[in-house]
Amino acid sequence: xxxxxxxxxxxxxxxxxxxxxxxxxxxxxxxxxxxxxxxxxxxxxxxxxxxxxxxxxxxxxxxxxxxxxxxxxxxxxxxxxxxxxxxxxxxxxxxxxxxxxxxxxxxxxxxxxxxxxxxxxxxxxxxxxxxxxxxxxxxxxxxxxxxxxxxxxxx
Length: 155
Hints:
Elements: E1 5-11, H1 16-27, E2 32-37, H2 50-62, E3 68-73, H3 77-83, E4 91-93, H4 97-105, E5 111-115, H5 121-132, H6 141-153
Parallel strand pairs: 1-2, 1-3, 3-5, 4-5
Helix pairs in contact: 1-5, 2-3, 4-5
């Protein structure tokens, strides 16, 4: 991964408003090289489900075409479950600073999911900014723990 992150962002109709604001913030963040919006888009909010968007995000990361993703639905749960179905992807819902921190430092999560119906917009934006500031260190005991998950996935 380069110094600047290649991000994907996506939502269903229940997370659309937050997705749009977070995408704007990400495009202005100097730590971000690019932001690819996977949808849904304002011309057809019912065009795809949270599962389609989350799986597409996971596949882009798996293929090496993106470094991380931010996904938003009503609760953050659906997109996390769907993204986690992609082999090699670790996605989590996080609605507080400590969980955001640990998602990277302890679990090397590539996907942060948020719930538009669960937290306020300003908190969601803040958590995404915080999440971008963390980098997984493979020289910690957490690396062995993440390896157990990865090993199982590919066994």
